[in-house]
Amino acid sequence: MNTSTSPRKLRYAMVGGGRDAFIGAVHRHAIALDGQAGFVAGALSSTPGKALASGRDLGLADGRNHGDWQALLADELTRPADERIDFVSIVTPNHVHFPVALAFAEAGFHVVCDKPLVHTCEQADALVRAVRREGTVFGVTYNYTGYPMVRQARAMVRSGELGEIRKVVVEYNQGWLATHLEGTGNKQADWRTDPARSGAAGAIGDIGSHAENLVATVTGLEIESICADLGCLVAGRALDDDGSLLLRFRGGARGVLIASQINTGLENDLRLRVSGTLGTLVWRQEQPSQLVHLPHDGPKRVLTRGSPWLHPSAQRASRIPAGHPEGFIEAFANVYGGVMADIRAHLDGSAADPLAADYPRVEDGARGVRFIERTVASAASEAKWTSWAS
Amino acid sequence: MNTSTSPRKLRYAMVGGGRDAFIGAVHRHAIALDGQAGFVAGALSSTPGKALASGRDLGLADGRNHGDWQALLADELTRPADERIDFVSIVTPNHVHFPVALAFAEAGFHVVCDKPLVHTCEQADALVRAVRREGTVFGVTYNYTGYPMVRQARAMVRSGELGEIRKVVVEYNQGWLATHLEGTGNKQADWRTDPARSGAAGAIGDIGSHAENLVATVTGLEIESICADLGCLVAGRALDDDGSLLLRFRGGARGVLIASQINTGLENDLRLRVSGTLGTLVWRQEQPSQLVHLPHDGPKRVLTRGSPWLHPSAQRASRIPAGHPEGFIEAFANVYGGVMADIRAHLDGSAADPLAADYPRVEDGARGVRFIERTVASAASEAKWTSWAS
Amino acid sequence: MNTSTSPRKLRYAMVGGGRDAFIGAVHRHAIALDGQAGFVAGALSSTPGKALASGRDLGLADGRNHGDWQALLADELTRPADERIDFVSIVTPNHVHFPVALAFAEAGFHVVCDKPLVHTCEQADALVRAVRREGTVFGVTYNYTGYPMVRQARAMVRSGELGEIRKVVVEYNQGWLATHLEGTGNKQADWRTDPARSGAAGAIGDIGSHAENLVATVTGLEIESICADLGCLVAGRALDDDGSLLLRFRGGARGVLIASQINTGLENDLRLRVSGTLGTLVWRQEQPSQLVHLPHDGPKRVLTRGSPWLHPSAQRASRIPAGHPEGFIEAFANVYGGVMADIRAHLDGSAADPLAADYPRVEDGARGVRFIERTVASAASEAKWTSWAS
Amino acid sequence: MNTSTSPRKLRYAMVGGGRDAFIGAVHRHAIALDGQAGFVAGALSSTPGKALASGRDLGLADGRNHGDWQALLADELTRPADERIDFVSIVTPNHVHFPVALAFAEAGFHVVCDKPLVHTCEQADALVRAVRREGTVFGVTYNYTGYPMVRQARAMVRSGELGEIRKVVVEYNQGWLATHLEGTGNKQADWRTDPARSGAAGAIGDIGSHAENLVATVTGLEIESICADLGCLVAGRALDDDGSLLLRFRGGARGVLIASQINTGLENDLRLRVSGTLGTLVWRQEQPSQLVHLPHDGPKRVLTRGSPWLHPSAQRASRIPAGHPEGFIEAFANVYGGVMADIRAHLDGSAADPLAADYPRVEDGARGVRFIERTVASAASEAKWTSWAS
Fold first, then answer.
1. Displacement of CA A334 from its chain's centroid (Å)
2. What are the residue boundaries of the GFO/IDH/MocA-like oxidoreductase domain, all occurrences included (chains A, B, C, D) (predicted)?
3. Residues of chain A neighbouring B242 (CB-CB closer than 8 A)
4. pLDDT tens per residue across span B214-273
5. Rounded (10°) angle between helices D328-348 and D148-158
6. Mapping DSSP to helix (H, G, I), strand (E, B) and coil, where does residue C56 land?
7. Do A102 and A111 touch, CB atoms closer than 8 A?
8. C10-144+334-360: what fold?
9. Taking CB atoms and an 8 Å cutoff, what residues of chain A touch D300?
10. Is B349 an interface residue toward A (CB < 8 Å)?
11. CA–CA separation, D274 and D284 (whole Å)
12. What whole-number distance in Å separates Cα of residue A306 and Cα of residue C315?
């Protein structure tokens, strides 16, 4: 990653991510890593007192530390261009995404929003329309797409190196919700298992959506129909904590998607296997620097991050030499790097370099919302197949 | 494996497994390994000339080398007890299993038969009835159950070490049928893709049945309903070469079963993951000496073959010290060892030691046939769930 | 890592690390990650023009962007306390470390210096004396000690969980110098293979010193004598590119240390195995989140970063949940985090929390210099053992 | 492995390997596996009563079950050619190898002998002379050379695929002697730690010799000088239980050899890494079906047993398809298969096919004895290097 030029540092605000939050700190680490943007404003909690205290913890100036996001937005609109934020990062629980994202987008701000994007397809469509109308940048932090070897996989599949894709198996297995953790005061477990805040799905929304995005990113395949079995395997839970899906893709490929949060002992076992007529790719998030390529007619190959023979999109997503592990924060930072490259192009009035402005967009987020909606519909249906379209 | 006593060597015949066959030689290696039985008679092909030539290749005496299995059976029935075979091993293509197995079983012979046992549930039931009526030994070579660490997994699950089982994921992936190999003169590919010889299923029958058996063996869970998607992904193929199944088990556990022969580059990727409330087990056939145990509340443990802390059923399935790999043939030999222990108990008129007489039985084979039948029915159905029972 | 309080951001300067440098950017990423310090001043190259251009690239203010380190030091001494740097980070080629580090230390500045610390034991001793006299903080970036699982290994060995240590095997293998890369204009290869800039050793100085430090950090064992075989296996090279050492430690433990830069195809294969009477630990830098523990009397355990059962020193070196990989930059940031905790304690006039102020110190750097010196002496000797002491 | 022809079954006798022995049963399993030879005679212990009881356990006919090896030899010499053994397998403790091997060799019998071959170079030379004089077959069971992927490694190195070899690191680590097991009545531990029966070396003789042989087999490199550090790390032990060696090879390559039996928790961790100018190979006995090839200028490759792109010497050492593990017994059987191919060639008066008659010979055994002798000499010396020659 070339850091040898010195464009001005961007400014960002954050909504959500205060005390007791988890993912907000990850976003801040990821943005800090490359030193391209400074954290200047925020409304860090839905509880005004906690929001202000959190902002003080993180060194926000008083005038830019707000008790709610409406105040933040109002204040930013009054500031001169050389003070105003370049983008806002929305890291609240899911149910808050929509109003905040829509308000900032409609006000002409560039936005980064966590996933799943919103609760319903209607909300997603409204957001897509707003972003298109404003012509602004809107990134969705499907962070796993930032791993260099995911980008290498995408390049290999898209270039035809695997031939025609026939079978995709993607899994995202965790064990942290294997007990009734939401009954113990755990804030993360509490909101993620609550339909009012998490949305219509639990595990499928939280991690199944990452799995869907990983398949779409790497293969470009479009889901034609879904057959889902969702379970609430921990007694007393209102949302699915385990889901298994059969998938059929346009063009004939078949797939399986598994997302579970009751797989005791598993940590963040996101893994993808894509088989085509010429070969198979295997990637695992817990060993992200390796991409295993099994050609049909030769020995297994293990591609590693940082190698000169990788695709440019994979090479530029890397900061340090091969063999020195990069991880989750670096991948997350790559997504932010893509967003910021696009923002800078907007600021310059230039066309963004597609290799640089490489990040999941509002349309990816909207597709993810539809995936959740159709999966929940399939789980409720006695028909084997639920089509994507209707 | 205690080899320090010297009971007499048993005698066996083989049906099938001649020139050009694959699995017959594996059976013979497996039987030879522990030196407990000698190969004395056979009808090694459905083509009489090839049968006789194959028997000569393998050193059968002329009087016990037969052109067809009917002649073998007739001859054995005439022989005195101290010459007659102790069991017959049936390693033909699938469609031949039923008549041969039934004839030998009804004639009072102990039988070992390859899997899938027969083509239909009716045949399977007839065979079960015959075996029960005769009170003979009947083993089915679900060979993967012979691995020590599969037996360790079974012991851990059955003793409650994983708590209540919630989720099972089993896969058996191969790549060898990713092209239209049956069009190239490959004998294995030819019969395995031919419904007349292979049965109603392709990949599901050949390897999906191993996956079903592995789940049943390790967990004891009973399938309640199946949702199957079977595909013939190589053009011009009449039987499934790829299958994905959602499973529901009695008692509420969920499962996924994947069997594919078009996963380019994969060799014999049979793998099992069983998650309970207290922990998860992971086993892979390609690294069979390891069983990974992930407790919910402590570090991952890697159990290895040959360790003194394993269950007795795992320990006795082992011949050499830990760290010296044992493989496929050894596991296969363990299945035969179980059959032979049961035969010896019959010969002695004693009750077999359950730890010794540890092998898949005719009922396991019959359950496997039903699994195939219900899976094919589900694949043809538009209903999401096809029940096991009807 | 608790980032919920908001002490003021520290200020740092960098010497070296300008255009074409490699490790300077890593230091800057590592410092940026946690947002605890801002980069405010520098002298980024020994070539004044390049130094100034590099500083502009990185956004240094003109008044704090210097053409040489002497100017940087002079300028800082004139600045008021609320502008002056809190520490300087020295990331030049090795031969420049000594004068810069000594000058800043003697001027009362806190210092972070890359390894190997200096060229000779005399220089090292002078530096140790200066730091002790001034009572300042002096960190040496043996960055691998920042990995959480290295800290876990240290805690387990130090607490006696492995019993008495008997055998240590440490390796650091790379392949990047397997060809005469220094003849191709590669700046890194150029200075690292030049005795005038790199010092008396090549591979042993660059990576063998990391291996020595890793052993000392984890085990606390002191080397008693060394038997070294150093080779220049690429024709025309003046410094060792491959070294193998037998080690004897005080108290009777034995060791092997291998450091090679001609191991074609290897990336950064740093690995450690420590065996005691009660068990063995195995750690590999390329999979840093795992620590394998092999007890003498039970199954292998795999400890993973982020688990609640780890030692506090390992837990606090972690930012994100288990299963989300952290890597090289995060480990590097942990070393800087330790230095900054100690600096903050100095600023507060308080005693540093040892769990927080966890970083390699000037004495570790000095021991590393002696290691290199004694290794080179051994390699030149025909006696089997060269003692550490003389 | 082609078993389709039916030459007559060979006959063999065994010396040693009775009740309580370990390795004898492994030899018998290995010979049984391919059904090429029958066990017809023996003198299975140095204690006549135990020898006879052991023979009865294993079903030897009374007339061929002897109380000592002299009686066995005398009896065999009286038997007609169509009864007489084709070879004798010597699996006694080390100190018995020499007299038995010499007597059978001088009597014109083909011999298989376990390693280390004998106690002294003088004995080894006498044996080599006897074998050459008689022109008989003499195999030494360096069984690890029977693994297909070891043969693949040998083929790749010998064909120049790695370029010029520069560095070899070989380790054989076990933990089973980490306590004073010989004081507990363990028969294996008892004789292996007793100089009178084991010879001048402990770990170096038992497993270091395998490591030496593996290097010689794969690379063909000749050791020029040795620098050894041997330790008796368990109190009260007379022979080394831990050894580390620096090696220099003719032609300039460097090496490290580590053999330890006090590495708590390790099982049979034999591993080899060979680096040349063009690439590196890595092989581990505990995952023997994989050979990792790291080219200098391309992605890592993982070659697996059973693949059509392997060298013929690796392909023919395989019985079953790729992905179905083969292990230790199969490798052992490959060594016996090589010996038997050579014996059959002798019986036929034909020249053996080198691909078939692939096994370690008496000269390999003699080189192994010299390796042990020079290593022990080096360990006793204060000079850094002890030359191989003198």
1. 12
2. 150-281
3. 166-167, 254
4. 999 999 999 999 999 999 999 999 999 999 999 999 999 999 999 999 999 999 999 999
5. 70
6. helix
7. no
8. Rossmann fold (3.40.50)
9. 301-304
10. no
11. 12
12. 29
Distance from C-alpha of B365 to C-alpha of B369, rounded to nearest angstrom: 6
Domain boundaries, chain C: 10-144+334-360, 147-319+368-387
Parallel/antiparallel/unpaired status of strands B138-140 and B110-113: parallel
- Report d(CA B38, CA B31) in Å as an integer: 8
Sequence-separated (6 or more) residues with CB below 8 Å from residue B319? B1, B326, B330, D25, D26, D29, D329
The pLDDT confidence band at residue D5, using thresholds 50, 70 and 90, is low
Which two structure tokens, joined as six digits, stand for A237? Answer: 């839970």
As to burial, measured by CB atoms within 10 angstroms (0-12 exposed, 13-18 middle, 19+ buried), residue D66 is buried
| C309 token code pair | 């059962």
Is D174 in CB contact (< 8 Å) with chain B? yes
User: A187 Cβ partners below 8 Å, 6+ apart?
Assistant: A20, A21
* Rounded distance between C-alpha atoms, residue D257 and residue D208, angstroms: 8
Q: For residue D191, count other CB atoms closer than 10 A to its CB.
A: 16
Residue D300 forms beta bridges with which residues? A302
What 3-state class would DSSP assign to A196? helix
Flag if C256 and D244 touch (Cβ within 8 Å): yes
Answer whether A208's CB lies under 8 Å from A243's CB: yes
List the one residue out of C320, C274, C335, B98 whose CA is nearest residue A328: C320
**3-state class of C250 per DSSP?**
coil
What is the C-alpha to C-alpha distance for residues B7 and B192, in angstroms, rounded to an integer?
39
Largest pairwise CA distance in chain A:
64
Look at residue D91 in the predicted model and tell me its pLDDT.
97
Note the ipTM here.
0.96
The CB density around residue A224, as the number of other CB atoms within 10 Å, is: 16
Among 3.40.50.720, 3.40.50.300, 3.40.50.1820, 3.30.360.10, name the CATH number for the domain at C147-319+368-387: 3.30.360.10
Q: What are phi and psi of B39, to 5 degrees?
A: -90, 110
Which of these CATH numbers, 3.40.50.720, 3.80.30.20, 3.40.50.80, 1.10.3290.10, describes D10-144+333-360? 3.40.50.720
May I ask the CATH class of domain A10-144+333-361? alpha beta
| Distance in Å, alpha carbon of C301 to nearest chain B alpha carbon | 4
Which among D196, D194, D271, D197 is positioned nearest to D240, based on CA atoms?
D194
Residue pair A110/A367 in contact by the 8 Å Cβ criterion: no
What pTM was computed for the model?
0.96
Task: Supply the Cα-derived Rg of chain C in whole angstroms.
Answer: 21
Query: Does C304 score more than 50 pLDDT?
Result: yes
Residue D1 has pLDDT above 50, yes or no: no
Domain B145-321+368-387 has CATH 3.30.360.10: yes
Cis peptide before D116 (omega within 30 of 0): yes
B306 contacts in chain D (CB < 8 Å): 267
CATH architecture group of domain A148-320+368-387? 2-Layer Sandwich (3.30)
Task: Name all chains with 3 or more CB-CB pairs below 8 Å to chain D.
Answer: A, B, C
Q: pLDDT per residue over A338-389, tens digit each?
A: 999 999 999 999 999 999 999 999 999 999 999 999 999 999 999 999 999 9
* B314 interface with C at CB cutoff 8 Å: no
Which residues on C lie below 8 Å from B309 (Cβ)? 298-299
Burial of A8 (0-12, 13-18, 19+ CB in 10 A): exposed
Q: Is the predicted pLDDT of residue C4 greater than 60, yes or no?
A: no
DSSP line for D252-263: S-EEEEEEES--
**Residue A194 CB contacts under 8 Å (≥ 6 apart), including other chains:** A182, A238, A239
Residues 6+ apart with CB under 8 A from D82: none
Residue C291 pairs in a beta bridge with C303
pLDDT of B3 higher than 70: no
